[in-house]
Every structure is written in C-alpha cells, then in structure tokens.
Write a structure and sequence with these properties.
The longest helix is centred in the middle third of the chain and has 79 residues. The protein is of the alpha/beta class. It is rod-shaped and about 175 Å long. Helix 11 links the parallel strand 13 and strand 14. It has a seven-stranded mixed beta sheet with strand order 1-3-2-4-5-6-12, with helices on both faces.
Length: 614
C-alpha cells in the first residue's frame, strides 16, 4: 500500500459502523490466510508469528523469501511455531476508512493473544505496520523483510525492531546488460502502475543517468497494459534489451502473477530479457547480478530467532544483503548468441546442455562393452573355427598317412618275411634234409655248423623284427633300461656318440612299464632315429627324469637343426606320431630347433593315477 493516509482509529470516524464492518469483511475475504505449523514435540515454547504481506501470500518475488523464512524458522525453533498470515491489498489505493477497518480486523483477529513477532513482506506492509503499531500490537517487535534499503522507514522503527534490507545495485545491473550486449542501444524497462512501481521508475531513471548520457535510450512500460507491453517487446528495434523490473498491476488496472507475465513477455519478445531476482533464473531471463530470496529468508529467520529468545535491543537493527555475483542461463546465451567471453569474470553459467557422453555415458559404455565382447567372442569363434578346420584337415591328412604307413609297414614286413626270413628258413630246411646224404664226417660237421650259424642269425633277425614291432625290454626290464639299450643300438647303428642319463628317474619312474613307458620310449626312439639319419649330429644326449607331477624324456643333439615353425606347419609322420601319442596320454611335447644350433625334443607325461597303474 503506497498511500499517505494518517493513522486513525475505527471509533474516530463518522461513517456508519456498517460501512466499517463491510470494508473489514472485504479485506478478510480478499487477503487473509492463516496457517498453523505442524504439531511439534512438547519441548520449548510455542510462538505466534504474524506475517503481513503487501500484495498476497503467493505474490512473486516476495513469496520465495517468505517461504524460506517460514521453513528455516520452523525447523530451527525448538518448539511449535504458529504462523498467522494476512495480506494488505497494496496494489490499489485504499482510503483512510478502509485502512482503519483493516487495522481493527487485525487487532480483533490476531490480538488475543497478541503475536510474539510481526513480520512484514515488502515495503507497503512495512510502512503500514510501523504507522499503525500503536493501534495494533503495542510492544510487539516488528521484523521487516523483503524490502529494499531505500524503502526502510528508519524513523518509524522502535527499539527491538529489525529490518533485513536488500541493496539493489541498479547501475551495476544495467551496466552488466550493456557489457554482455556491447551494441545495445535501447533498453525497455517493464514496470507496473502502482505507487511502488512508480517509485522504482524514479530510482532507475536517477541511477542510470550515466547510461542515458552515453546514448542508450530507455523505453518505459509503466503506462501500458500487459497486452501493449507484449506488442512493444515484439517490435523492439535491433540491439535492444528488456529489463524485467516489477509488474504488480499494469496501467489497465489488471494485477498479474509475476512469473506468468514473464512467460508471456518471453514468448513475444524479439530481444533478450534480464532480471535481478533469483527465482526467475532458468525461466527465460538471460541473468546477471541477482537478489537471493532464499538468502533473504534465511537471514530473516536467524533474526527472528534472536528476537524471540534474546532481550529487546536498545536500538533498531538494520541488516543489509547485497546482490550475488552474476549467474547466466546457458540456453538464453546460446539463443541470443551472446559470447561467453563477454561475461563478467566471476560469472556462473547454469543449465548448460550436457554432452551426449554426459547424458548417456553409462548407456554408451554398456553398449560399447557389449559390442567389444561380442566382437571378441565372434573373433574367438572364428579363430576356433579356423583351428578346428585346420585340425580336421591335419587329422584327415594324418589319418591317410597313418593308413598308408600302416599298409607300407605291412608290405615291408610281408616282403621281409617272404623274401628273407621265409627263404632263409627254406634254405635251412633244405640243408637239414641233405644232412642225411652226407656220409663224410667232416663235411657233415661243416654242414651242421653252417645250419646252426644260419639259425642263430635268423633268431637275431626275428628278434630285431619283433623289437621293432614292440620293445619287449620295456616289459622285461623297465623304461630306463629299455632306453639305455636303445641308445647303445643307435650308437652302434649310426656311428654317433649317444649318452644316456637315467639316474634322476629312480624308483617307479625308471622301472615304469605299460602304455606311458611305451609312449616315452617311442618318442625317444623316433628322436634318436631322426638325429642319426638327418641331423648329422656328432653327439646325442638322452635324459629320463622325474619332474613335478610326471615323467619327462628329452633327446638333445648338436646337429644342423631345422626350422621348427616350418616343420610344425606340415609335420613329418614321425613328428605327428609323437604328438599324437603324447596328446592321447594328456602330456605335452616340445620341439626346439634352429638351423645350425641343434635340436631338442622333450616329452612330459603326467604321473599315472591309481586306475592307470599297471
């Protein structure tokens, strides 16, 4: 309320009591709302706090400060807090009779018992309460909040009163607009037509005179309706800006909810809109230095706690709250193509659009991980498939070669038996039959000796043939002794020095028989044969030893060596046979060789289990 009516009592007026009551009822129905704090534990003392609003309980921008005040005070006071609320219709001119009726209503409604603290929201309520304090609630302290320092009625404050005054730096607010928009030539100022808004037009004109002197044109909307304002902001010249001040009631007498009016102006405006209130950030304004309603409410709640608990101060207390560093809406900066490098150094940019990674990073990482795993699995399956096909080809090739080798070995044995052993046996049989015809003792004795020698040689040849088919020495003497005998045979047969070391394979390993012993023997036998035939070796070392968990045999020569990787691509029948034998018994075969550096063949078989033991 912005009129200058003197304080009067309801009894001092000549109009009829009926008119007074009618006015009081009109105020009560239009603007009174009382809310009780939730029930609290029975600790501390309950306090009654009367909040008198200037324009309405939910009127922006003051509502945010009062909401923060209620929240902070209720949460910090140790007992229950009863909030009583009334609204002063300051958006229109009220005569002295109506104002007196409202004073009477407040006293009747909230005076029994009297509140412990009275809180005003905005300047009209502050002036009303300090003007009528004697008639309302004498001796009750008043807390002024959501009021600019310019409007604080300092002379009317009494001891114990407190004012939480905001300090609006108008030159800084408007200069920041020009700073982020250096080519600005026109600033349209949105203001309503109430006395409070006319007061602020005068303040803006006075404190922005420097910008006007620099050639910036100010356009005032305090004589326009909201519809006319929308038409004006839609047709502003280039390089214009809109400053959203106060819009309580427009020139047509229509009251407006602040945020709804802002949304309509934003929809129509062809220029960026600036504001100084915290709760409008993110709602269509570019930003800049701002007043924090939450900070105002918190400071007012702290002052209320002191006023409710401490002794009344000897002098009024005035606390000031300045503007916060600039905050800008990134979406509006991008919309109006405002360069962020032009923002003040201490600026904060909010509502920045997150990158796709920031928004969907977890999903992207999950999908990427699944794709990588699928790719790796597919690659592994393809490699496995290639290996399987290669193994199948090698198996088919090896199978064919083994069949061929088996048939060749059978033919060789058949030829050897037919062409050699059988013929020699037939010859011995013929010579034995002819003994009866030899009468001369000397000739008979020579013939018998020849037959005996031939039979002995046949026995040795048949034994050698049998040894090639299966080394009986393994069954008779054990693996170590069979290997020793084979080394001696290879030395005699190939004219090469062969050393055997079987001392490390003591106990069961050295005397081992059966399939495992035969496998290790065949590996050593094949390696000895290859070294003697192909390696041009002068010395061969054969070693049988016990290793952790199994038995190993190795054959090392100092021959010419070969390319082991090339040999693995298409192994000879002998090497393939060695690998197959060892693999069937769960062992491993290792062949190391380089051209000119000799060859080492090593086979390892795991120890026999109880079921495998012969």
């Amino acid at each position: 309320m912005e009129h200058r009516a003197d304080s009067t009592s309801a009894a001092g007026h000549s109009p009829a009591r009926r008119a007074v009551l009618r006015a009081g009822c009109r105020f009560a129905l239009a603007s009174i709302g009382a809310s009780l704090a939730p029930a609290a534990p029975a600790q501390g003392v309950a306090r009654r706090v009367l909040i008198v609003h200037s324009f309405g309980r939910d009127f922006a921008p003051y509502d945010a400060a009062i909401a923060a005040f209620r929240r902070e005070l209720a949460s910090r006071w140790p007992g229950p807090v009863v909030f009583l609320e009334a609204a002063l219709d300051a958006g229109r001119v009220v005569d002295a009779e109506e104002e007196s009726a409202f004073v009477a209503y407040l006293e009747a409604r909230f005076g029994h018992p009297a509140p412990d603290l009275i809180v005003s929201s905005a300047a009209p309520a502050a002036r009303f309460l300090t003007r009528h304090r004697a008639a309302l609630f004498p001796g009750v302290p008043i807390l002024l909040t959501a009021i600019d320092a310019r409007a604080v009625p300092r002379a009317a404050l009494a001891p114990g009163d407190t004012a939480i005054a905001t300090v609006i730096d108008l030159p800084e607010a408007f200069s920041t607009v020009v700073r982020v928009l250096p080519r600005t030539s026109t600033i349209a100022v949105v203001l309503g037509a109430t006395p409070l808004e006319r007061f602020w037009r005068g303040e803006v004109e006075r404190e922005t005179a420097g910008l006007a002197a620099r050639g910036i044109k100010f356009v005032w909307f305090d004589d326009l309706s909201l519809e006319q304002m929308k038409a004006q902001v839609a047709s502003l010249p280039p390089h214009s800006a809109v400053f959203y001040g106060l819009l309580i009631v427009d020139a047509a007498g229509v009251p407006h909810e602040r945020l709804e009016a802002l949304a309509e102006l934003k929809q129509a405006s062809n220029a960026p809109i600036f504001s100084i209130f915290e709760n409008e950030l993110g709602r269509g304004v570019v930003g800049g230095p701002y007043l924090s309603q939450s900070r105002t409410g918190y400071t007012a709640a702290m002052a209320a706690l002191r006023m409710l608990t401490a002794a009344r101060s000897a002098q009024p207390v005035i606390e000031t709250i300045g503007m916060q560093p600039p905050v800008y809406d990134w979406r509006e900066l991008r919309r109006w193509r405002i360069d962020e490098t032009l923002l003040p150094e201490d600026s904060e940019v909010r509502y920045r659009e997150a990158s796709p990674w920031a928004r969907y990073g977890r999903e992207i990482a999950t999908v990427a991980t699944v794709l990588v795993m699928q790719t790796a699995l597919i690659a592994a399956l393809m490699v496995q498939r290639a290996r399987r096909r290669r193994a199948e080809r090698e198996a088919r090739t090896l199978g064919g070669r083994l069949i061929t080798a088996y048939e060749d070995e059978g033919r060789r044995l058949a030829r050897e038996l037919h062409d050699d052993i059988t013929q020699r046996l037939a010859g011995v049989s013929i010579e034995a039959a002819m003994l009866a015809r030899i009468a001369e003792p000397a000739a008979r004795s020579a013939a018998e000796a020849a037959i005996g020698s031939e039979l002995a040689q046949l026995s040795r040849d048949v034994h050698a043939l049998s040894y090639r088919l299966h080394p009986s020495a393994i069954d008779d003497l054990g693996l170590a002794e069979a290997l020793r005998i084979e080394c001696e045979r290879a030395a005699r047969r190939g004219g090469v020095a062969v050393d055997f070391d079987g001392d490390a394979a003591d106990g069961a390993d050295g005397a081992e028989r059966g399939e495992r012993a035969l496998c290790l023997f065949r590996v050593a036998q094949e390696a000895l044969r290859n070294a003697a035939r192909h390696a041009q070796a002068r010395h061969i070392q054969v070693r049988l030893q016990r290793e952790p968990g199994g038995t190993a045999v190795s054959v090392t020569d100092d021959g010419i060596g070969f390319d082991a990787s090339a040999a693995r691509a298409r192994a000879s029948l002998g090497l393939a046979s060695m690998r197959e034998r060892v693999a069937l018994l769960g062992g491993r075969l290792e062949i190391r060789s380089r051209s000119g550096e000799g060859t080492r063949v090593a086979a390892w078989l795991p120890a026999a289990t109880a079921e495998q033991a012969p």
